[in-house]
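Late entry, S-adenosylmethionine complex.
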Amino acid sequence: MTHADVDATRTAYDDMAQLYTDFVRGHLATQPFDRAVLGAFAELLRADESGPVADLGCGPGRIAAHLVSLDVPTFGMDLSPRMIELARAEYPGLRFEVGSMEELTIEDGALAGLVAWYSIIHLPPERVPHVLREFHRVLRTGGHALLAFQAADAADTVLGFDHKVTRAYRWSPDRLAELSREAGFTVIARMVCARRPDERFDSGYLMLAKVADPVR
Ligand SMILES: C[S@@+](CC[C@H](N)C(=O)[O-])C[C@H]1O[C@@H](n2cnc3c(N)ncnc32)[C@H](O)[C@@H]1O
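Prediction complete; structure with ligand written out below:
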């Protein structure tokens, strides 16, 4: 199904792709908590050699590249063709493809892991449960997912905000955790980092596992 907001997001990121790529280049090196979460994710995945890892909404590919540098075989996928062009140019040895996380063409249980790093934020909230179910479907049992997002302060809340590139939503970690559980995941870790002076919002992280018998 095509949604007008998806076209708007694709066009906005196509238009801003070079600017965004230049903006985030080297950013991870300034973010110890981002690296800590990605390091823990990589450690879980290195112990599991059963399949590839997908970076969904990869933008210019920096998270996929970071995971590869941590010995986690990762490919990237993004809605924006221009972002994918730039990701391929930045990291010529890695695989990047155009696609939508709402219409994954990945087979059931094909992935050992997936990361959605500030990319589910552009989905209208009512479509997030479907995407979380899709994430659960494409992971093998025993696989892990990692979500990063701008965090809302109050529990049980999702709030629209002006993201500068295009419409986006920040989530309370509790609410996103609840939806993740409803999609079949077990929430194995969560973290909230207070905004720094140059940031507008706290950052939220959820680490999810697909286990055989989830505890609700
Ligand atoms: C804030 S950027 C984050 C990019 C990258 N994860 C990073 O941290 O550098 C959001 C990215 O999500 C992508 N995106 C938004 N909606 C998407 C969707 N439905 N499917 C795939 N990618 C999507 C956008 O094109 C954009 O590149």
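The first strand starts at residue 53 and ends at 56. Will revisit in the morning.
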